[in-house]
Write a structure and sequence with these properties.
By secondary structure, the protein is α+β, with helices and mostly antiparallel strands. It is 55% helix and 18% strand. The chain is built from five helices and four strands, in the order H-H-H-E-E-H-H-E-E. A four-stranded antiparallel sheet has the order 1-2-4-3. The chain is globular.
Length: 164
């Protein structure tokens, strides 16, 4: 008889995060058909609170947050835990006051593509709400913003985490 413990934890994690991301996209698609773009207000509120609440997860794991480099690393770890291992990217510039990063892989964008649901509608603002509130909750001396986004047609995402 097969037991859940027979399935490697990494495989379970990948299945769970893909399912959660796909469910999120389908939920958005269906509710958007009913109430229109008003769903973006709901998602932004949810993602804002999710970003703030993720600080608790980061702190419970002992992840650092005293400067831009540490915040970027912590954001990457928490985002990967929540959304799965499909993130891909590189740091373009980094010092204690500022990090510029480039993302070339995103689990949420992949979920949109896998389902065939496009455009990604409110995803850019939802992502910004989560990340910005996460960074500012983790260390109120820093801000985070996107300068490029794959989900709006850019070839990659680019973001800046910097001292206010």
């Amino acid at each position: 008889m097969v037991n859940i413990k027979d399935i490697p934890a990494e495989v379970r994690w990948e299945i769970a995060t893909r399912a959660a991301n796909s469910q999120s996209v389908v939920y958005d698609m269906l509710v958007r058909q009913i109430i229109g773009d008003k769903i973006d207000e709901i998602w932004n509120a949810i993602m804002t609170e999710g970003g703030k609440a993720s600080k608790v997860m980061a702190k419970s794991l002992g992840l650092p947050s005293s400067n831009a480099v540490e915040i970027d690393g912590t954001l990457g770890i928490i985002s990967t835990i929540i959304m799965g291992p499909e993130f891909a990217g590189v740091v373009l510039e980094a010092n204690v006051n500022r990090v510029i990063g480039k993302m070339t892989g995103c689990p949420m964008l992949n979920a949109h593509r896998n389902i065939g649901y496009g455009p990604t509608a409110g995803t850019p603002s939802h992502c910004q709400a989560f990340c910005q509130n996460f960074v500012e909750s983790l260390n109120p001396r820093y801000i985070m913003r996107y300068t490029k986004r794959m989900c709006t047609g850019d070839p990659h995402c680019e973001y800046v985490i910097e001292l206010k």
